[in-house]
Design brief:
The protein has 11 helices and 15 strands. It is an alpha+beta fold and about 325 residues long.
Length: about 325
């Protein structure tokens, strides 16, 4: 009889109240910022491929809180200027989950072609919902329906490469993380212009940062906590596919500071030339010649130099290897 009672109690605990640790985590809809930013600073550093960030570009710098200024989370401008929030709220549906700042003025809205157009922020009004692979958008909005952050959710097994010209783009950085492949388009100030995440047959693209009021740190924190509910990306296969389709221009983004010369060549392929220990890659697009120079210190890649890339419009009959070689030497000696 006693054994029977024990079995009943165990069955009750397992069946009704035996929640595992992972299930408890899934049920947590409010978390501290510490829980979602464990590798934030590491990712910030990995995004920057330059040995030193080029001359500071303040074109798209955002307002920030002054030293010792306490944030007011009931105030829109204070939220926009904040780089940190003590609590974050979880959004989740059958496709995706992510965290966003837990403040009264912000909420998540699912936006699709059926959403009332007159209620949309000007950013949303310019989105083409007729594009069949665009499933819907996740809009983190203020209570006046203006956008704080926007994510587009697509069906498709490749990244989108078109973007606006605002803020420019120095290079692309790829990072494989939690089964997803991240693509960062990095601006002169070392901040991501926009971020994409691919996993399985789906992708998320965050709207271009220069057109959003959000602080760049919060923009990145939101991106790093997006979980697409799909099969993991095969990192090696994806790198080879991008390499075959887009060449060195995109494959630069798979480099990491601290790589050996051998590792760099494995990713980028054999260079056309080597000058004073630097690898010289040359790409011709119509009448445009692009020379890329990868430097090393004691055979270790420390980052891109400021003059690592040069674009030149060629005369109609001038593309000799010797001339390219001389041009590369000129750049190297600057």
């Amino acid at each position: 009889m006693r054994k029977y009672l024990i079995l009943l109690i165990v069955a009750f605990v397992v069946g009704c109240g035996g929640t595992t640790k992972s299930q408890l985590n899934d049920l947590k809809t409010i978390v501290s910022e510490i829980e979602i930013t464990k590798d934030f600073e590491q990712i910030q550093k990995r995004i920057i491929l330059y040995e030193e960030i080029p001359e500071k570009d303040e074109s798209f710098e955002k307002n920030t809180l002054k030293p010792n200024q306490k944030p007011d989370y009931q105030n829109r401008e204070s939220i926009i200027a904040s780089s940190s929030f003590p609590k974050w709220k979880k959004y989740e549906d059958k496709y995706i989950s992510f965290y966003y700042p837990d403040v009264p003025l912000l909420t998540v809205k699912l936006i699709n072609a059926d959403y009332k157009r007159e209620d949309l922020d000007i950013i949303l009004n310019n989105i083409d919902f007729s594009y069949k692979k665009l499933i819907h958008c996740y809009a983190i909005m203020f209570n006046d329906n203006s956008i704080y952050c926007l994510m587009k959710f697509y069906k498709g097994d490749h990244f989108l490469y078109a973007s606006c010209f605002c803020g420019g783009r120095l290079y692309t950085k790829y990072i494989y993380r939690d089964g997803g492949l991240y693509r960062f388009a990095v601006m002169k100030n070392g901040k991501p212009k926009y971020i994409q995440i691919r996993k399985g047959d789906y992708k998320v693209r965050l709207f271009e940062y220069p057109h959003l009021p959000i602080h760049p740190d919060i923009y990145l924190k939101i991106a790093l906590n997006i979980n697409i509910k799909a099969l993991p990306v095969n990192e090696d296969k994806e790198r080879e596919r991008i390499k075959a389709k887009y060449g060195i221009e995109e494959n630069i983004g798979f480099l990491e500071k601290g790589m050996s010369r051998k590792q760099v060549v494995h990713i980028l392929g054999e260079p056309q030339r080597q000058i004073l220990g630097s690898l010289i890659y040359v790409e011709l697009r119509d009448r445009t010649e692009i020379i890329k120079i990868i430097d090393f210190q004691n055979d270790i890649f420390k980052g891109l130099k400021e003059n690592w890339e040069e674009w030149t419009t060629l005369p109609s009959e001038s593309d000799s290897v010797d001339r390219i070689y001389e041009k590369a030497k000129e750049i190297k000696n600057k």
